[in-house]
Design goal:
By secondary structure, the chain is an alpha+beta fold. The protein has one domain: Nuclear Transport Factor 2, Chain: A (Roll). 33% of the residues lie in helices and 42% in strands. It has 4 helices and 6 strands, in the order H-H-E-E-H-E-E-E-E-H. A 6-stranded mixed β-sheet has the order 2-1-6-5-4-3. The longest helix has 17 residues. The radius of gyration is 14 Å and the shape is globular.
Length: 134
Protein backbone atom coordinates (compact mmCIF):
# COMPACT_ATOMS: atom_id res chain seq x y z
CA UNK A 1 0.00 0.00 0.00
CA UNK A 2 1.13 3.53 -0.62
CA UNK A 3 1.18 6.06 2.25
CA UNK A 4 -2.15 7.65 1.23
CA UNK A 5 -3.90 4.25 1.28
CA UNK A 6 -2.33 3.39 4.62
CA UNK A 7 -3.49 6.72 6.08
CA UNK A 8 -7.01 6.16 4.73
CA UNK A 9 -7.09 2.72 6.37
CA UNK A 10 -6.14 4.20 9.75
CA UNK A 11 -8.71 6.99 9.38
CA UNK A 12 -11.37 4.36 8.55
CA UNK A 13 -10.56 2.72 11.89
CA UNK A 14 -11.37 5.93 13.80
CA UNK A 15 -14.61 6.43 11.85
CA UNK A 16 -15.80 2.88 12.49
CA UNK A 17 -14.97 3.01 16.22
CA UNK A 18 -16.74 6.37 16.63
CA UNK A 19 -19.79 4.99 14.83
CA UNK A 20 -19.67 1.79 16.89
CA UNK A 21 -19.98 -0.18 13.66
CA UNK A 22 -18.60 -3.73 13.75
CA UNK A 23 -19.42 -4.27 10.07
CA UNK A 24 -17.08 -1.38 9.18
CA UNK A 25 -14.33 -2.51 11.56
CA UNK A 26 -14.17 -6.16 10.46
CA UNK A 27 -12.77 -5.62 6.94
CA UNK A 28 -10.05 -3.35 8.31
CA UNK A 29 -8.46 -6.15 10.38
CA UNK A 30 -6.65 -9.40 9.70
CA UNK A 31 -8.22 -12.45 11.36
CA UNK A 32 -5.22 -12.72 13.70
CA UNK A 33 -5.05 -9.00 14.55
CA UNK A 34 -3.31 -8.03 17.80
CA UNK A 35 -4.37 -5.16 20.06
CA UNK A 36 -1.74 -4.10 22.59
CA UNK A 37 -2.79 -1.82 25.43
CA UNK A 38 -0.64 -0.67 28.38
CA UNK A 39 -0.72 -3.19 31.23
CA UNK A 40 -1.92 -0.48 33.62
CA UNK A 41 -5.23 -0.09 31.80
CA UNK A 42 -8.50 -0.95 33.53
CA UNK A 43 -9.17 -4.73 33.44
CA UNK A 44 -9.82 -6.50 31.14
CA UNK A 45 -8.22 -4.11 28.64
CA UNK A 46 -4.55 -4.04 29.71
CA UNK A 47 -2.25 -6.41 27.85
CA UNK A 48 -2.27 -8.04 24.43
CA UNK A 49 -5.47 -9.32 22.82
CA UNK A 50 -5.70 -11.47 19.71
CA UNK A 51 -8.37 -12.23 17.15
CA UNK A 52 -10.75 -10.07 15.19
CA UNK A 53 -13.99 -11.10 16.95
CA UNK A 54 -12.58 -10.71 20.45
CA UNK A 55 -11.03 -7.34 19.69
CA UNK A 56 -14.07 -5.88 17.94
CA UNK A 57 -16.25 -7.01 20.85
CA UNK A 58 -13.92 -5.45 23.40
CA UNK A 59 -13.53 -2.19 21.48
CA UNK A 60 -17.19 -1.63 20.83
CA UNK A 61 -18.20 -2.87 24.28
CA UNK A 62 -15.87 -0.36 25.92
CA UNK A 63 -17.22 2.50 23.82
CA UNK A 64 -20.87 1.49 24.21
CA UNK A 65 -20.65 1.06 27.97
CA UNK A 66 -18.53 4.13 28.68
CA UNK A 67 -19.83 6.91 26.43
CA UNK A 68 -23.04 8.38 25.10
CA UNK A 69 -23.71 7.07 21.62
CA UNK A 70 -22.23 9.27 18.93
CA UNK A 71 -20.22 11.45 21.34
CA UNK A 72 -16.79 9.91 20.73
CA UNK A 73 -14.34 11.81 18.53
CA UNK A 74 -10.65 11.53 17.70
CA UNK A 75 -8.78 14.71 16.80
CA UNK A 76 -5.57 13.75 15.05
CA UNK A 77 -2.63 15.96 15.98
CA UNK A 78 0.19 14.16 14.19
CA UNK A 79 0.44 11.44 11.57
CA UNK A 80 3.67 9.62 10.75
CA UNK A 81 3.93 6.91 8.11
CA UNK A 82 6.98 4.71 7.55
CA UNK A 83 7.37 1.28 6.00
CA UNK A 84 4.18 -0.60 6.98
CA UNK A 85 3.28 1.50 10.05
CA UNK A 86 0.95 4.45 10.51
CA UNK A 87 1.33 6.35 13.78
CA UNK A 88 -1.38 8.77 14.86
CA UNK A 89 -1.17 11.00 17.92
CA UNK A 90 -4.72 11.93 18.90
CA UNK A 91 -6.93 13.49 21.53
CA UNK A 92 -10.03 11.45 22.12
CA UNK A 93 -13.08 13.18 23.52
CA UNK A 94 -16.46 11.80 24.47
CA UNK A 95 -19.31 12.29 26.91
CA UNK A 96 -19.94 9.78 29.70
CA UNK A 97 -23.51 8.64 30.41
CA UNK A 98 -23.56 10.95 33.46
CA UNK A 99 -22.67 13.96 31.25
CA UNK A 100 -19.00 14.32 32.24
CA UNK A 101 -16.59 15.18 29.44
CA UNK A 102 -13.76 12.76 28.80
CA UNK A 103 -10.60 13.97 27.06
CA UNK A 104 -7.48 11.85 26.93
CA UNK A 105 -4.37 11.60 24.79
CA UNK A 106 -3.95 8.46 22.70
CA UNK A 107 -1.24 7.39 20.30
CA UNK A 108 -1.89 4.51 17.94
CA UNK A 109 0.59 2.51 15.90
CA UNK A 110 -1.19 0.62 13.12
CA UNK A 111 0.87 -2.18 11.59
CA UNK A 112 -0.41 -2.98 8.12
CA UNK A 113 0.04 -6.25 6.26
CA UNK A 114 -1.54 -7.15 2.91
CA UNK A 115 -3.87 -4.15 2.99
CA UNK A 116 -5.32 -4.67 6.47
CA UNK A 117 -4.40 -3.81 10.05
CA UNK A 118 -2.63 -6.74 11.69
CA UNK A 119 -1.65 -4.97 14.91
CA UNK A 120 -2.69 -1.92 16.90
CA UNK A 121 -0.40 -0.64 19.62
CA UNK A 122 -2.45 1.81 21.67
CA UNK A 123 -0.79 4.15 24.14
CA UNK A 124 -2.97 6.10 26.55
CA UNK A 125 -2.83 7.84 29.90
CA UNK A 126 -4.13 4.86 31.85
CA UNK A 127 -4.09 6.67 35.20
CA UNK A 128 -6.34 9.45 33.92
CA UNK A 129 -8.71 6.88 32.40
CA UNK A 130 -8.81 4.81 35.61
CA UNK A 131 -9.53 7.89 37.71
CA UNK A 132 -12.25 9.03 35.31
CA UNK A 133 -14.05 5.70 35.25
CA UNK A 134 -13.73 4.85 38.98
Amino acid sequence: MNPEEMNALAESYFEAVCEGDASKLRPLFSEDVLWRIPKGAIPPYGGTHKGVDKIIGMMLGAVGDSFKEGSQRFDVRTTLIADNIVCKETEMSAVAPDGRSYQNDYTFFFVIREGVICEIREHVDTRYAADFFS
